[in-house]
Write a structure and sequence with these properties.
5-stranded antiparallel beta sheet; 13% helix; 38% strand
């Protein structure tokens, strides 16, 4: 019994001093419609019907299905007017049932550094994020834990969040039945929403602007 208590204390201390919610250093994809915009790409085609492709030697390639979007890397002229090069040695005739587009300057600018993060204040804006909170006064961070004896799950206090810290928010709901509404910080971590009967106004909640969200698409 004492051993179990000691282990629980150790894990709690580790969580208190090691818990951080940080931005992962991952490359951001520059999406353009259904496809990712790539360096060296000059445009894309959207197919209105099934379209046959051709190889560099003029022989037939595979048939691409209607509705698909494909990156275009080259354009070459031929006796039929011209062909868009899709990469991997495949081409489609420019007069096929398709729409050809070129990327906007704004999209191309994002390729200057494909690892560019979309920053929002002190944190990186992530897909699936619905907002962020700025801590105004000391607030308790909780984590959902399962009961070891098969009882109902509960919330365990982890540490105190300090004023001016910012955190991403992925949900705004009751994490468990019978609890007050809370903001979900991801990973099973929660903080209480502003409640005048409990802790007053302790956090500032904001949602991302349409301009910020557009940078993620």
């Amino acid at each position: 019994m004492k051993k179990n208590i000691l282990i629980a204390i150790v894990f709690t201390l580790v969580a208190m001093f090691s818990f951080t919610i940080t931005s992962e250093a991952s490359s951001t994809q520059v999406m353009w419609g259904k496809t990712e915009l790539k360096k060296g790409q000059i445009g894309k085609v959207t197919l209105y019907a099934d379209v046959a492709t051709y190889k560099a030697d003029g022989s037939r390639g595979k048939v691409l299905p209607a509705g698909g979007e494909y990156r275009v890397y080259t354009f070459r002229t031929d006796i039929y007017g011209g062909e868009y090069g899709l990469g991997d040695g495949l081409f489609v005739n420019m007069y096929s049932a398709l729409k050809y587009e070129t990327p906007s300057k704004a999209k191309l600018a994002l390729l200057v550094d494909s690892s560019t993060k979309v920053m929002w204040g002190k944190t990186e804006l992530k897909a699936g994020q619905i907002g962020k909170v700025t801590i105004l006064k000391e607030t308790t961070l909780f984590k959902v834990i399962n009961s070891v004896d098969g009882g109902e799950p509960g919330l365990e206090p982890i540490r105190q969040l300090m004023p001016n810290e910012e955190f991403r928010i992925y949900s705004a709901k009751q994490p468990l039945d019978g609890y007050v509404p809370m903001y979900g910080l991801g990973g099973g971590y929660y903080i209480v929403q502003n409640n005048t009967m409990l802790n007053g106004v302790s956090v500032k909640y904001e949602t991302p602007s349409k301009a910020k969200l557009a940078l993620l698409n």
